[in-house]
Amino acid sequence: MTDAHEIDLDETVEHLITLNRSHVEGAGALQQTANRISAALAHPGVVLAILVGSLALLVSHRLGLFDGLFAVLAGEQGGFWVSFAGLIVAILVLSAQRHDQLLTLKHSELSLQIALLNERKIGKVITMLDEQRRANPLLPPDRDAEAEALAQTSDPIHNLQRIEERLRGA
User: Fold this and answer.
1) What is the DSSP string of 57-116?
2) What is the pLDDT of residues 14-29, one digit of tens each?
3) In this structure, is residue 57 part of a structural domain?
């Protein structure tokens, strides 16, 4: 029984890999670049470096170091500091969103894997019940086309392609 479960799990993992690969390969060069940049900026080390750099700039400004530079950058309204604070907030939001997105992706992959395994198990149960029905001398040994159809597991890649075709046609 373990061998069959491992085969089902291996096939499920292969389906997930194929779906993920097609998703990544389907993204354009600009989208792939944006994904790489957002992944790099969302790294906690980058956020920490920006916060430490901001603190260093603030301390150097308070100590009077580089006053000429700060006067040029800040302008009369202090626009530099407002823009810089906006950048920090945007990076922090991006970091939080990226983290949540990765968690959501892991959850959806796990849900898909469980659904595919359950579908295979249900197909096996239907097949076994149909075999028992045929073996029972009190019941007619006729073929049950509906049970045979329900016992077949679906191909998630084929189903996804059919959905995409229907969406394009609609």
Assistant:
1) HHHHHHTTTTHHHHHHHHTTTTHHHHHHHHHHHHHHHHHHHHHHHHHHHHHHHHHHHHHH
2) 776 776 677 667 777 7
3) yes
